[in-house]
Amino acid sequence: MSETASPAASREPLTPDICVIGDSPGGLAVATAVALFGVRTVLVRQSGSALPLNEGARGQALRAVAQRARAIADAEPFGVAAGACEIDYGRVRAHLDQVSARSAVSDSDERLAALGVLVLKGEARFQNRRQIVVGESVIKARRFVVATGSLPALPDIAGLAELPSLTEDSIFELPKRPERLIVLGGTAAAVELAQAMRALGSEVALIARDGLLLDEDPEAVGVLRRALLGDGITLHEGRPILRAESHRQRPRVVLDGDTKIDGTHLLVANGRRPNIAGLELDLAGVRSDGTGIIVDASLRTANRSIYAVGDCVGGVAAGPMSSQAAQHQAGLVLRNALFRQPTRFRREWVPRTVHGWPELASIGLSEAQARARGEIRVLRFPFAENGRAQAQRRTDGLIKLLTDRKGGLLGVVIAGAQASELIVPWGLAIQKRMNVREMAGLIAPSRSLSELSQKAALSFQAPLAAKPGIRRLIGFLSRFG
User: Fold this and answer.
1) Angle at the Cα of 28 from the Cα atoms of 327 and 355, rounded to 5 degrees
2) Tens of pLDDT along 259-310?
3) Alpha helices in 37-128 (DSSP H)
4) What's the farthest any 2 CA atoms get from each other in the chain?
5) Which band of pLDDT confidence, cut at 50, 70 and 90, is reported for residue 7?
6) Would strands 409-416 and 359-364 be described as parallel, antiparallel, or unpaired?
7) I need a labelling partner for 70 at 20 to 30 A (CA). Which of 129, 251, 295, 377 fits?
C-alpha cells in the first residue's frame, strides 16, 4: 500500500494491521513509525485542526518575529541606537507561511506514501468495535489509534457567538496587524499571542476571566504577570464578563462595573475541546467525556484494540498536550501494540511550558501536589544572581525546586529566560528519581544560564553550614593540617 487514496478509491474492505485516525503529531508519529517496521498502515486525514497552531510552525515563527522586534525595542539600554521598529506585516505573514510550508514537507502525503502508508481523506466513523468507514471506504484493522487532536472552545458569554472572532488557530491568517486586539482567556496560548502581537505594535487587552494560567505555579505566574504589565498590555484578571457586543461594527467586551473594552479584533483563546464529535465512539465500545477519550495508563480505551493519543485523550491522560508529548505517547503505543511491552504514561514527566517573555517551564509535581504527599523542602534561586542574566538585562525570574526531606526531586519550576531549555536536565532527573545532591554535582558551562540549575541544587546543602555538629567536625579536622 504505497499510494494516496481518495475516500471512494476502495469499495472492498481494507485490512491493515494499524489504522490511525487523525493526522495530529501523535497520529503522524504512529503511522510513520509502524510503517518503518513494515506494518501495513492506513492514515485517515480528517478536516479540522489537529494541533493548536500556536504550538506548530506558524506559532513558533510568530514568536521568533516578536523576539526580533523586542530585541530592537530593548536595545537602547545596551547603548545601541536602533531607532524606531517598523513592522511590515505582509512580510511577517510571508515568513509564517514559508516556515509552515517547509515544516509540512516532512508530513506530506507523498512522503507517507513513500514509507508505505495508505492515506485516506475524509471523516471517519466507527461502525462497530473493529471497523470504520471513511466515505465509501471500509477499514477493518487489528488495531486503531485515534489521534484527532482538539479544536478551539468558545466560552459561554452572552453575545459572543454572534460576534466575528479569531481563534488561536485563525489569527495566523490575518492579512493585517490588529490595531487594538482584545484577547479572551488566561491560557498559555492567550498569553503567548497577546505578548507576540503587542511586540509587533498592536494595543492589547488581555481578559482572564477565571484567572491567569491557573494550572501553573503562582510564583512563576507572578513573574510573567509583571512582564505583561511592563509590556503595556492591559490586564483584566478574575473579573466577570457581562456580555460581548458589537459597537460601531467592532467588538466590545463589557465587564462587571460596566467597564467597556473596545477593540478592532477579538481573539478567543479560552481553551480547547477534544475533536471527537462524529466518530461514533459508542458503537466501538469506547467511552468519552468532556475531557476526551477515556484511556488507561497504557493509552488503551475500553475497547482493547483501540488506543488514543494527543489532545483528544481524556481520563488519566487528560490535559494540554504539546506535540512532543503526543509523540511520546505515540512511542508508548508503538511499544505496547507492536511489541506487547507494558507501558505507562506519566503526565508528571511531561514538561509544561508557556512560551512567553520570560518563559515558564515546569515538570514533576506542583507544590500543592508535593505538599499533599508529606513534608517537603522548597528551594529557590533567583535569575538576578546569574552573571549571564545580568549581562542580558533579563534578571526577573527564579528556579524553584521541590524536594522531600532527603533531597529526592519531586518537581521543578522555572520562570525566566530560556526556561524551556533549562528544564531539560531536570526532566531527566525527575524520570530517573535523582537526588538534588546529584544535580548539585553538575558542572555547568562557565558564564551560562545553566549555572542557575547547579546553584539552585547546591542551596539544598546551605542549612548544613549552620549546624553546630558540622562546624565542630571541620574544627576537629583542621587540627590535622
Assistant:
1) 50
2) 999 999 999 999 999 999 999 999 999 999 989 999 999 999 999 999 999 9
3) 57-73, 89-105, 109-115
4) 91
5) very low
6) antiparallel
7) 251
Please, what is the average pLDDT of the chain? Answer: 91
The CA distance from 122 to 109, in Å, is: 14
Cell numbers placing 396? 526577573
pTM of the complete model: 0.91
More confident residue, 12 or 122: 122
Q: How far apart are CA 463 and CA 453, in angstroms?
A: 18
**How many CA atoms lie less than 13 Å away from 107 in the CB half-sphere?**
19
The three cell numbers locating residue 289: 467525556
Sign of the Cα torsion 74, 77, 80, 82 reads: positive
Q: What's 358's DSSP letter?
A: S
Q: Which long-range contacts (CB under 8 A, 24 or more apart) does 420-428 make?
A: 420/351, 420/353, 420/355, 420/359, 420/361, 422/361, 422/449, 422/450, 422/452, 422/453, 423/351, 423/353, 423/361, 423/362, 423/363, 424/351, 425/450, 425/453, 426/363, 426/364, 426/453, 427/349, 427/351, 427/363
Q: Are 170 and 331 in contact (CB under 8 A)?
A: no
Instruction: Assign 3-class secondary structure to 127-141.
Output: EECCEEEECCEEEEC
Q: Which three cell numbers stand for residue 357?
A: 517573555
Q: Which three cell numbers stand for residue 274?
A: 477534544
Q: Letter for the amino acid at 345?
A: F
Contact 414, 360 (CB under 8 A): yes
Higher pLDDT, 163 or 470: 163
CB 118 within 8 A of CB 42: yes
